[in-house]
Amino acid sequence: MTYDAIVIGAGHNGLTAAATLARKGARVCVVEKNAKPGGMALSGTLDGVEMPRMAHLVYNLNPRVLSELGLSNVNLKPLKTVSLSPDGNHVVLDGNRATRVDGTPHPEATAYAARYDDLKRFSALLAPLAERSAPGVSFGGRKLDKFSELMAAARIGLKLKLLGRRNMREFLRILLSNVHDYTLDELSDGPIAGAMAADAVKGSWSGPRSPGSVLSLMYRMSGSGPAHVMGGIGKLTEALAEAAQSQAAEIRSGAGVARIFVAEDRAVGVLLDDGSELRARTVLSSIGALQSLKLAGVEHFDAETVTRLRNIRTKGTAAKINLVLGGVPTFSGLPSDLLGARIVIAPGSTYVEHAFNPAKYGEMSEAPVLEIVMPGQIEPGTTQPDRHGMSILFHYAPHDLEGGWTDAAHARLLDITLATLDAYAPGLRQLVVASEVLSPARIEAETGAPGGHWHHGEWSTDQMLTTRPASGLAHYRFAVRGLYLCGAATHPGGDVTGLPGRNAALQLLKDGACA
Amino acid sequence: MTRPNTPDTLVSVKIGMIDTPFQPMLEPLSESQAWYSWAGYKSATSFRNVDLEYFAIRNQATVFDISPMCKYRINGPDALRVMDRLVVRDMKKVRAGRVAYVMWCDEDGMVIDDGTAFRFAEDEYVLFCQERTYKWLCEIAWGFDVTVQDWQSALCGLAVQGPCAFSVLKDAGFASIEDMKPFDLRQVEPGLWISRTGYTGDLGYEIVTFPDHAPPLWHRLREAGQRWGLIPIGYEALDIARIEAGFLAPGRDFQPSHKVSRLHRGRTPFELGFGWMVDLSTGHFNGRRALLEHAAKGPRYNLVRLDIEGDAPAGNAYVYAGKSFAGHVRSAAWSPTFKRNIALADLKAPWGKSRKKGLWAEIYVEQEGVWQKRNARTRVVEGPFMNIPRARMTPPQAY
Ligand SMILES: Cc1cc2nc3c(=O)[nH]c(=O)nc-3n(C[C@H](O)[C@H](O)[C@H](O)COP(=O)(O)OP(=O)(O)OC[C@H]3O[C@@H](n4cnc5c(N)ncnc54)[C@H](O)[C@@H]3O)c2cc1C
């Protein structure tokens, strides 16, 4: 039989694309190389404890994705953020409020609220851009596309105007600036600025002093704030899979794609690793852009496109450490009711920048930025008394580590993590019952993401909107007719947003590609 | 005490033009000592007198040093696939031992350059062209099993052109090329290849060899050529012959698309009159999707051959259709053989194709410090300006 669409990769974007298409009546088959769907948003187990394997929170999951697919069973629990300070003066961030751990206002509360409110307002402005195909830059081209693109741009322009003169100036001033200068204009170089800096650079090959980091912070703040998916992040991808399957989409796990078939300049199916072939009218790929191109064959793409995709920067910097602790840790100066918060070790913006420096020379941070989540503390009752999962994001662990990602390098990364934690939670190291370290190299091996990169390709001003994945490839169309990209490598980018998958599916339908 | 940076201790870096392997033999023959830089090499504008050299092309035999041409070797199991990916033409039809005139385009379907692809063997090509294009070839070849080498100085060559070209080569000991048809290529001696190709539209051959073979080759040709009036020629005479033959000069008749930054300065093969070469049916090649759209929409410009009234040199003249601007003359020459004022002109579509009537050229001529404007009627010429049967006859006749 011939499917209307084959989706490569059952990460949350592939699944969102599949569910979106299936709801419109398309016959869809998702093919995933791993045994379990989920991609980077996957629940795993460590020593019997269920744990988010890679991604652990949602920051900017798009509400439209949930509502359009009717995912009423996905429940999000917003989390406070605790930004730890070495002197014990930790900060609790909850929306635009900044307090001490005892609930009293933080001395910088007003300055923080002003920064937060501005960023929220501006990110709302950019949201419409993320929810649609990025405008294409072409000469000639399809007139209708261009008209609707113009209208979208005009709408943003109009909204900008409605913000008023001060806001408009401020927006344009900070848009391409760096988060370090932006926060330190009003805030001290402490844990509040540190937490903002950490949110801005997560997953990127950049530090808070890198230009464009304000923009990435806005991107991350475009949702309703950090939230835990009840039941674990895997519940989201499971719900997406069910939404697709309930509309008769097939999901084939353990089915890696070896090749995308192209006949007469059209994508017509895929060859699986086991040698079997599937036929389809369209193919959507949620894996990296250059990887997708190679699956289809370099010969089907103009050399300019190949060169641009080869030049996409894909050096991953995020590692993941999962721990099982034999008891509940104690963080100095942190009341235990805050253990269910998102705990960040980024005690200053300069600290974050310094953490980035070694990455430039192929070394891992000795004083890393950590983001810690304890699912069992967020959902009490889901854990056993002597088994506590701790999910930790580590920055920066460069993909191209000097000497390679050997066992010793993984052990070193774990050691640095535990030493860093121990400084804030003395004795934590002794609680460790089980651990696993996912370096960018391991993330790449497991998910196929180039460089193990969080976004499947750096999220930066030169690789966004029209130039994501590369100029000349707007509207998710991937040169060959009927071939689309639908993952983090495309507009608007990575994070668990669901937008690339949704937008790509809608574009394909609009193009009438599988009709 | 020594002072390290006195002029006599400085290393002198050689500047100026490079000699081709034939230059030591050519230079003493030049009476005019008129040289120009062709891709950094010292090349002759003329040796004595342009008219003389031109008539030798059409009546005797000439030799022109083609060593400065850019040459790239593409070699390996995927060589054919890479050539097919590069050029707009179907290279599967070009066998080993053949040469093909080719064009290649960017992603917008605009011509980057044209040249000749020599298929030395099943898996080995050498591409001859005007523009440096190594980086582009590497990009085209990425992901394929081939090596791309810049052979600009690894090979040198001579073009022997004119009705007596075959006779010269025969007397020089290359009689075995007698049965070679136009665009045939053959290794005639170790390290020496001859192709029946050229830039004059006349009977002619190109000889390609390694630099250390250059002096003996030269002397053989000189010796054999004496009976046949073989003379060295410069670019100016060749340029008249190539305009008569209707060959394009990159940078003059079209702007190589990698050299222009302004939009719409590039031209598609269709617009240059080479639509016949574009094979849209045999899989993807660079720029194919853009060319499909261009094919559907039709050309924006037409490069056409013009016959211009009078004898005023028409280079760069404006061309009008009635009162409206239609385009520019690119290359122009007085054709001594046909006694016509001929030109290649880039006209806005539909001028030159479906609308040809009423075209005239606005030519400015200077006489003793006074500029005069001449309006000359022009006619679009279908097909080549010249058609010389001897250029194609096999075996070639001895004149
Ligand atoms: C360590 C880490 C932590 C993160 N934490 C967060 C977080 O807390 N919050 C957040 O919002 N974002 C986080 N991110 C980013 C986020 O997880 C990703 O941007 C997002 O999940 C990408 O989704 P996707 O569907 O586009 O791609 P993926 O989730 O990467 O899915 C691609 C799928 O394709 C499959 N595949 C690959 N090759 C083939 C093939 N040849 N054939 C078949 N299948 C194939 C892979 O196995 C995979 O399942 C994190 C990323 C990393 C690396």
From TrEMBL, chain A:
Superkingdom of origin: Bacteria
Pfam families tied to this protein: NAD_binding_8
InterPro entries found in the cross-reference section: FAD/NAD-bd_sf
SUPFAM superfamilies tied to this protein: FAD/NAD(P)-binding domain
Protein name per UniProt: Phytoene dehydrogenase-related protein
Automatic annotation (TrEMBL), chain B:
Molecular functions (GO terms): methyltransferase activity
Top-level taxon: Bacteria
Coiled coil: none
Gene Ontology CC annotations of this record: cytosol
Keywords, alphabetical: Methyltransferase, Transferase
Entry annotated with the keyword Glycoprotein: no
InterPro entries: GcvT/YgfZ/DmdA, GcvT/YgfZ_C, GcvT_C, GCVT_N, TrmE/GcvT-like
Signal peptide span: none
Sequence ranges assigned to domain GCVT N-terminal in this UniProt record: 37-281
Source organism phylogeny: Bacteria, Pseudomonadati, Pseudomonadota, Alphaproteobacteria, Rhodobacterales
This protein's name: Aminomethyltransferase
Residues bound to substrate: E206
Gene3D superfamilies, A to Z: Probable tRNA modification gtpase trme, domain 1
Species assigned in the record: Ruegeria marina
Residue ranges of every copy of the Aminomethyltransferase C-terminal domain listed in the record: 303-369
Biological process terms in GO annotation: methylation
Transmembrane segments: none
